[in-house]
Amino acid sequence: GENVEQHPSTLSVQEGDSAVIKCTYSDSASNYFPWYKQELGKGPQLIIDIRSNVGEKKDQRIAVTLNKTAKHFSLHITETQPEDSAVYFCAASKGAGNMLTFGGGTRLMVKP
Amino acid sequence: GAVVSQHPSRVICKSGTSVKIECRSLDFQATTMFWYRQFPKQSLMLMATSNEGSKATYEQGVEKDKFLINHASLTLSTLTVTSAHPEDSSFYICSARDSAGGASDTQYFGPGTRLTVL
């Protein structure tokens, strides 16, 4: 089955700096890659996703890149703010109706 | 849009009792809902896939007789933890997949239910 590795497990940045979280996946048939933000005691919130027919997607301060050949995708957060502090999960699936396989999560801490 | 609710948000029960958790898609129809379990500082582990009008599909190692899932309508799925024990204490999260439109692979998560079994 699919296996998703996520790095780093913890990331501390200064407010205003950029943060990058990387994930690799094993199943070349995966074609949908969402990113979720989870705050303490809450459910995951979808922040951005990308499908395999696209190499990059951006939404304000958040961007995701996908390299299908290398089977890895990354989350980029620019101009980080303290409210960006949370746990971020990447995931992969084979598309509609299929389960998501999650990475291990990255705890991002943005220091004011 | 795409709001998923869970009820209750927190439950404390005695060992041996059963607990029912509801998951509702508020503004869309969901033929498929998923139930996850999350231990502290760990990732989400899929327990089962719930399909409207049919039996749930359980992941390996998840006891279907202990974790009963019912998906009776396009907006409601329930998870019942039967004869709960302290080791069942965890954060249970559901997600729902929007059945309509081109982005049918997107899953929206509920806020989670914290279960504590004494």
Computed Rg of chain B: 14 Å
C-alpha-based Rg of chain A, rounded? 13 Å
Question: Whole-number average pLDDT of chain A?
Answer: 94
* First-last Cα distance of chain A: 41 Å
What structural class should be given to the helix and strand makeup of chain A?
A: mainly beta
- What's the mean pLDDT score of chain B? 91
Number of strands of chain B: 11
Largest sheet of chain A: 6 strands, mixed
Outline of chain B: globular
Describe what this molecule looks like in 3D:
The complex is a heterodimer of chains A (112) and B (118). By secondary structure, chain A is mainly β. Helices cover 0% and strands 54% of the residues of chain A. In chain A, the strands form 2 sheets. In chain A, strands 2, 4, 5, 9, 10 and 11 form a 6-stranded mixed β-sheet that branches. A 5-stranded antiparallel β-sheet of chain A has the order 1-3-8-7-6, with no helix packed on it. Chain A starts with a strand and ends with a strand. By secondary structure, chain B is an all-beta fold. In chain B, 0% of the residues lie in helices and 52% in strands. Chain B has strands at 4-7, 10-13, 19-25, 32-38, 44-51, 57-58, 67-73, 76-81, 90-97, 107-109, 113-117. In chain B, the strands form 2 sheets. In chain B, strands 2, 4, 5, 6, 9, 10 and 11 form a 7-stranded mixed β-sheet that branches. In chain B, strands 1-3-8-7 form a 4-stranded antiparallel β-sheet, with no helix packed on it. In chain B, β5 (44-51) and β6 form a beta hairpin. Chain B is globular. The model of chain B has no long low-confidence stretch (mean pLDDT 91). The A-B interface holds A 32, 34, 36, 41-46, 49, 89, 93, 95-100, 102-105 and B 4, 6, 32, 34, 42-44, 46, 49, 93, 95, 97, 104-112, 114.
